[in-house]
Design a protein that fits this description.
Blueprint: E1 12-17, H1 20-31, E2 35-40, E3 45-49, E4 52-56, E5 59-63, E6 69-74, E7 88-96, H2 99-108, E8 112-117, E9 128-132, E10 138-143
Parallel strand pairs: 1-6, 7-10
Antiparallel strand pairs: 1-7, 2-5, 3-4, 3-8, 5-6, 8-9, 9-10
């Protein structure tokens, strides 16, 4: 990444919806996109969070248009994807070639790792990681192997 994330070149934006079906119906025609299912919510996925392992029945959909893709996430109470009254911007996502290096760089800049896929020791980033600025903004780093 050359030392800084390019503000104008995220690979995706993440948005959380209290009702993912309603959000797809509302946003799809406005943005001229169809949606495809990412995760269907039928299986609890283990995530490493600051407090330990959290099992989440994650449900997502992805807009088919790019180059900036939209990830819709069904809100899940008690998680990093909380319910709010309406659809909201959750994070900017960046595909990176060296996930461990970029994760260390963000932590060195003072961002906190909020969530990653479980399976590695705490503090290590597994496939992707959500990092929080002190002011609250979330950045997601995703390995280019899966982005």
């Amino acid at each position: 990444m050359g030392g800084a994330l390019d503000l104008f070149a995220p690979s995706h934006i993440g948005m959380v919806a209290p009702d993912i079906e309603a959000a797809m119906a509302e946003l799809g025609p406005a943005w001229g996109t169809q949606w495809f299912v990412g995760r269907d919510g039928s299986v609890d996925i283990p995530y490493q969070v600051r407090a330990g392992i959290q099992m989440v029945p994650l449900r997502t959909a992805w807009g088919q248009r790019g180059p900036l893709r939209v990830e819709l996430i069904q809100a899940v109470p008690g998680t990093i994807w909380p319910i709010q009254d309406s659809v909201y911007m959750h994070h900017l996502g960046y595909g990176v070639a060296d996930l461990a290096l970029e994760a260390r760089r963000l932590v060195d800049l003072g961002l906190e790792l909020e969530l990653t896929r479980a399976g590695l020791p705490p503090g290590a980033v597994n496939a992707f990681g959500l990092f929080r600025f002190a002011g609250g903004l979330l950045i997601e780093l995703v390995s280019l192997e899966i982005d």
